[in-house]
Amino acid sequence: MEVIAMFKWLETFKVVYETKNFSKASEILFISQPTVSAQIKQLENEFGTQLFIRSGRKEVLVTPQADILYERAVDLMNDWENLYQAVQTNQQQIIRCVIGASHTFATYVLPSLLIQLQQEFPHIRFSVQMMNSLEVLQAVEHHTVDLGFIEKPLSAPTIKRFSLMEDQLVLAGNLEKGPWLVRENTSGVYYYTKRFLEEKDIDSPVMEIQNNEVIVGLLKQGFGCSLVSERAVEGISHQRLDESYKRNFYLIRRKTSASDDIVKCGEFIYEWSKQQ
Fold first, then answer.
1. Considering only CA atoms, which of 79, 74, 214, 86 is closest in space to residue 144?
2. φ, ψ at 247 (rounded to 5°)
């Protein structure tokens, strides 16, 4: 069996595992569905085990063997990519760290942290992706992000979570005029907004906006009201809420397969946060 063929099968396996759907995998990989099925079958024959359970529905189920293979295969493919890049550029092995950050943390905390990280770890190439808290967790689980910053205490069996600094939420904007500017239900602040509306028995019009900076921009123009971080309300009329509307930021990474460099970055971030 050629190594190139195995990597091709593993790439197909990775996409099927993440989408739980052969048709979606074929669209993402730009190959036919029969080709996807054939490559998965070849991989199953190679390992002598079933990886997916095809129940007749569009979505397939994964087996425990697939869980094991996914965890190891993604690490193998990442290591291969780093090695390939290093050889191509005639340099020492390149270390990459992809950071996934929820909106408030990315906007108001991450810039200062990135400067410190680059100074402390000049051999690491950092890149940043902004998404909501649930998406960050899923990205870390799927090995597309190495370190994640979230705004609610999400957890998963393969994830290790560290509590960082606190973040106070405030009521910003004009409560009388509305509408309520609300983040999507997978964001870190949605739970607090929903609780506030229920506690105050508020039934005002709601506008869902999946971007924190758009909400802040509207508030600065005197449009609407919202619960946002105190870090974001400079120049905006607001009132502080009680202690129950104080939350934490969290750092997450995978429990296993994290490189020594990623672990050291996590330790540095934890210590840095305690000084903020």
1. 74
2. -125, 175
Q: Exposure of 30 by Cβ count < 10 A (0-12 exposed, 13-18 middle, 19+ buried)?
A: exposed
For residues 44-72, average pLDDT: 84
Asked whether residue 58 carries a pLDDT value surpassing 80, the answer given is no
Given pLDDT bands bounded at 50, 70 and 90, which one contains residue 93?
low
Task: Give the mean pLDDT of 111-133.
Answer: 93
